Amino acid sequence: MALKSIKPERRRLADKVYEQLVNAIANREISVNDRLVQEKLATELQISRTPVREALMRLEHEGVLSASISGGFRLYQMNKEEIRELYQARAAIEGQAARILATRKNPDEIADLRETILREEDIQIKTVQNYFKANHNIHRRFIELTGNRFLLEMLNVTWGKAMAIHLFGSIAEVDLAKSLGSHMALVDVIESGDKTASLEAVTQHIQEGFELQIRHLED
Amino acid sequence: MALKSIKPERRRLADKVYEQLVNAIANREISVNDRLVQEKLATELQISRTPVREALMRLEHEGVLSASISGGFRLYQMNKEEIRELYQARAAIEGQAARILATRKNPDEIADLRETILREEDIQIKTVQNYFKANHNIHRRFIELTGNRFLLEMLNVTWGKAMAIHLFGSIAEVDLAKSLGSHMALVDVIESGDKTASLEAVTQHIQEGFELQIRHLED
DNA sequence: ATTATGTATACTGTATACGGTATACGGTAC
DNA sequence: GTACCGTATACCGTATACAGTATACATAAT
Fold it and tell me: Fewer CB within 10 Å, N- or C-terminus of chain A?
């Protein structure tokens, strides 16, 4: 006898609601003006309020949503200073990742990065969302390859906070394309094995992303 | 008339439960063998299960507790590899903080750090908890001074995950005292304004903390 | 017309009820 | 005694009920 274990974890409806909400935000089905109301969502999903509430509160704690005093949750809107700090935090995570990868100088990892970049940069339908997703996938891959689950978790949370900025901002495609094209150079630096240079390069890259972002918020 | 606004936020019982649980863990009132059961906690706190459940789930998502398949939550016990990754993540956060502070070279901030270190290193009752708290306060101050709320949040979450390791480990006092004494040197490097050296120094310091930790886990 | 006030409505937070699953335990067959 | 099985118990996840607070709107007072 060799049957697989079926349920290793406690299952929760709230997790599914959470995922659905994250996807809905990423696909711009929830806009900055929408108010997410527990009862409405619950009837829509054909479940009770409890798991809906749990998912909403989780997103609130993660800084994606904010609870309005008059009821309902909405996408948290960062101010410019918060965005600056968020990019600084991203630099911490991704800079460290670059250091780790540069120290290891693992050819498989380097090759994986190059592949990922080539694949993701090859965008067919040039929408802001697609640029956004490609960029996300590339940056996430850097962290995934470090194998550090906490760095990955921090990046995910950080990226979640940023969703509302990126998805509902108005960056021009041409700028996005240019920004997306600058990833391969980062791999070259990492491949050289210079961990300080790698950190500096990634930091610089993220700083440029921030400036691109800010320029378009000022309009 | 100039009355202060009373309730700017939605208040929730779950937040109080959360705080109480965090404090209880930090004060070693909850041990690694304890099983936290929703119903038991609820009757103990004289409230219903709902807010207790919310607080427990939040701590689960933060990686402090883990839900046992057979019911109840317990302190999450990291393995050695996870501890290593956690320290690596801390280095990301605190290394970036050091870079920021070194770049600014603000004399007020430098003075604040020195004050904090002197105050916290002056421990009256030499218990493991007290060393732990002092170390926490010093490291947190570095991040607080950057003014970056996300770095601070990440440090808090990271530190939360580490509570169970530190509090129930068995590091000798003498080692802790030595480790605690090495903070002032970090400030000196930051004061020099060399951001790379600052990052390296902090990384090195955290690496030493990790090795101290690991040495005592192997017993 | 504008301001104040009462009342309905919208939503929330907390408590409780209910059904299901997993462990614990005690009895029965060998 | 040991292996197996059935039932009791513990605990959870989800649904629902209930009470309190904030907004909206209509009505009354100036």
Answer: N
